[in-house]
Amino acid sequence: xxxxxxxxxxxxxxxxxxxxxxxxxxxxxxxxxxxxxxxxxxxxxxxxxxxxxxxxxxxxxxxxxxxxxxxxxxxxxxxxxxxxxxxxxxxxxxxxxxxxxxxxxxxxxxxxxxxxxxxxxxxxxxxxxxxxxxxxxxxxxxxxxxxxxxxxxxxxxxxxxxxxxxxxxxxxxxxxxxxxxxxxxxxxxxxxxxxxxxxxxxxxxxxxxxxxxxxxxxxxxxxxxxxxxxxxxxxxxxxxxxxxxxxxxxxxxxxxxxxxxxxxxxxxxxxxxxxxxxxxxxxxxxxxxxxxxxxxxxxxxxxxxxxxxxxxxxxxxxxxxxxxxxxxxxxxxxxxxxxxxxxxxxxxxxxxxxxxxxxxxxxxxxxxxxxxxxxxxxxxxxxxxxxxxxxxxxxxxxxxxxxxxxxxxxxxxxxxxxxxxxxxxxxxxxxxxxxxxxxxxxxxxxxxxxxxxxxxxxxxxxxxxxxxxxxxxxxxxxxxxxxxxxxxxxxxxxxxxxxxxxxxxxxxxxxxxxxxxxxxxxxxxxxxxxxxxxxxxxxxxxxxxxxxxxxxxxxxxxxxxxxxxxxx
Length: 568
Prior knowledge:
Layout: H1 12-16, H2 20-30, E1 38-41, H3 51-66, E2 70-75, H4 85-98, E3 106-108, H5 113-125, E4 129-132, H6 136-142, H7 160-172, E5 181-184, E6 199-203, E7 217-219, H8 221-232, E8 236-240, H9 247-256, E9 264-268, E10 272-273, H10 280-288, H11 303-309, H12 313-323, E11 331-332, H13 334-348, E12 351-352, E13 354-355, E14 358-363, E15 372-377, E16 387-392, E17 395-399, E18 419-422, E19 427-435, E20 441-449, E21 466-467, E22 469-471, E23 476-483, E24 508-516, H14 519-522, E25 529-531, E26 535-539, E27 549-555, H15 559-566
Parallel strand pairs: 1-2, 2-3, 8-9, 10-11, 12-25, 14-20, 18-21, 23-27
Antiparallel strand pairs: 4-5, 5-6, 6-7, 13-24, 14-17, 15-16, 17-22, 18-19, 19-20, 23-24, 25-26, 26-27
Helix pairs in contact: 3-12, 8-9, 12-13
């Protein structure tokens, strides 16, 4: 992060980006309510990050960058039953991949367990917390509803001494899971259910990834979160709208504890993306039930999945900038993400030729055994990308869809007697069609015009079609995986349907026997490339040098919108 600027000197990016959160920060700095900006990204390490988290990451780290402050990475690790080191490692990898760094400011809520326990005892001494022996079901039943007040616990008026004794014995591990909790004593008749004596601690005999067996009780998220913000000196606690109703509890705890600072919580609309799910619970179900191959399945909206699909982090940051920071929820079409990806890759991705459904083309008047190296442009959008040599020979692979035996009038590719341009090479004319016993076209014969190498015909004749190809003797066989939306519906499960019923059975198509130009095997690079006329593709770790595997990142155009418009 850039920390060279003073807090009151916005960067150009900060001036350019205007949203209600940035306006709040700008005003707080101008009016002296804060001296410098401290934000935090506080994931729970119980799953992999998804693109909704990316929006929060870009906002929190972006605020720090724009206003010369800092952003902490803090793991709110208060539930050891669901938390694993794997998730901690994956989260750090994802944040760095997006282009952000927390420097020395990596924290854990578990770092504060002793302080949080001491502050819980402070609340007990002040008569603001008590040990409750009711079960979880009893607490839930007595909490009331949105229209009816809750009922006081029969244990609400225990003495300070009894509460302290029981709370310390809870810590010592004397009681079984679920037998007691520590609750804040606020107001069981509050219109905000979160203030109806919320639970602060629960008994949980489970080892913690960082503290081991040291604790038999763990703080709740609501209790640990705000106090960790205060300990870290966070000035702006930015979270999504579902936490708006929790803000009064956040403020109540900060006000009634000897916290070293008083952060303020601000809420923004979470990302809702069409044709996918961003619920961590649902993502876990997709993984554990085998609907996808793992957390990095390229069909998932996880950052690991998007990375494996070949989506560059710059495109995700640009997508986050475009959708902005709003105060109310809305549905963002996944095509907006695709557009940001295409725009970035169009400028930066190298071009290569790949034939996904090969059909043999033999140029009968081309000398047998001869090989030419033709110049091919690496990226027409980037002159500095240069050119590469592509081998050309008598036998080629072309795309099966680029040939029709009886083509319609507006089909401008290859057909009997038709002439087309081979990309970077020559004009060729189809002279014969070879079929197998079943009548299937298995090979095409053609002639070429040697005078048209890399350009137009000297006699001025024109062709309307240009097709790509791969030299058969140089082709690298590959597997190509075509990914589509994981769900057929914009909002899976809308209208009361089972959300799993909306899974797209055609979300993955595996093509084998694809033929790639040799540069795709020689590069040994994880970078996403454009298969000319096909789309953008990224090498998958399942591949090997002699048989690579490529994942489609995104098509060249938004074909899904056309399909949806036609209704199928």
